[in-house]
Amino acid sequence: MGKRAAPAGRRGTQSRRRARGRRGPVRRLALPVLVLMTLALGGGAALAHFNSQAADDSAAPAPEPTTVTEAPTTDAPTLRPTTAKPKPKPKATTAKPKPKPKPTPKKTTVPQSGAGTFTTAQASGDAVGTGGSLRRYRVQVEDGIELSAHGAAAEIQQILAHPRSWAAHGRGRFQLVSQNADFVIRIATPDTADALCARQGLNTHGELNCETADGVVVNLKRWMLGSPTFAGEAAEYRHLIINHEVGHEIGIRQHMGCPGPGKPAPAMMQQIKGLNGCRSNAFPYDEDGSYITGPIVS
Asked: Which of 200, 239, 259, 274 could form a Cys-Cys staple with 294, CB 3.0–4.6 A?
């Protein structure tokens, strides 16, 4: 059986399809080739433009750096002024010189015994006092002790002229002389004072003063050191010694006791033996001129 020939219409159609089938792959390859060529041409231009721009950039000067200041934020805390005062700077200190140590007071030493002989103060003065009999006295100091007879005489003269003493209240007038005296005031070491007082039958135990037939005997220990029961300096206690013993000379024979607790002790009280509640006192009269008295004791 022979092949049937295709109709003319169909042969035309199949011919056109085969023709399109042969051209299809060529078209699909041409498009990418065309794109690559375009990119190659464009890339070269871009590369030329990049090289030209790089050359221009290298020729241009580098831009100066700029400083960027940050604007303050409102979130930062507000600083408040403090009330604390600034601490002063420490001052430069210089080393202070060390104070010199105070000299230790010289301890007064009293000799227990002496020569037993006396030097009379060659001094005289006006009578002191406002009334009563004139009594002349002289002052003697035992030899060999560090006490001036002249200095002692001047001090006793001031004691008798004191406004709270006997002479200022009409109980007698007193005058310092170097001879022709009515009585003598002797200042002696404890041993010598004991010996002089013993002649009158008085035991002074190396501590006390006494009044004898020819005058007053003052124990050097009491004159220099005062009394452990007296609230005052030795110089004030010397007023009590003279006022007490001269009180015997003007006729006050008895001793007195304390008039009451807290009151001043009478000058005629033996204060060295105890105050019995009284305050120590060196004068026969108080500041308003009243006589300081107390009960009579044996």
From this structure: 259
Record the pTM: 0.66
- Enumerate residues 6+ apart whose C-beta is below 8 A from 179: 120, 138
Residue recorded with tokens 């009491």: 222
Digits of tens for pLDDT over the chain (298 positions)? 444 444 444 444 444 444 444 444 444 444 444 444 544 444 444 444 444 444 444 444 444 444 444 444 445 445 555 555 656 666 666 666 666 666 665 678 899 999 999 999 999 999 999 888 999 999 999 999 999 999 999 999 999 999 999 999 999 999 999 999 999 999 999 999 999 999 999 999 999 999 999 999 999 999 999 999 999 999 999 999 999 999 999 999 999 999 999 999 999 999 999 999 999 999 999 999 999 999 999 7
- CA dist., res. 222 & res. 219, Å (int): 6
Residue 27 CA: distances (Å) to CA of 18, 23, 33, 165, 262? 15, 7, 10, 162, 150
Are 114 and 192 spatial neighbours (Cβ–Cβ below 8 Å)? yes
Residues 6+ apart with CB under 8 A from 223: 147, 187, 234, 238, 241
Tokens of 98: 């060390």
Asked if 198 contacts 191 with a C-beta cutoff of 8 angstroms, the reply is no
- 118-253 CATH, one of 3.40.390, 3.90.550, 2.40.128, 3.30.70: 3.40.390
The Cα–Cα gap between 240 and 197 comes to 19
- Residue spans per domain, the chain: 118-253
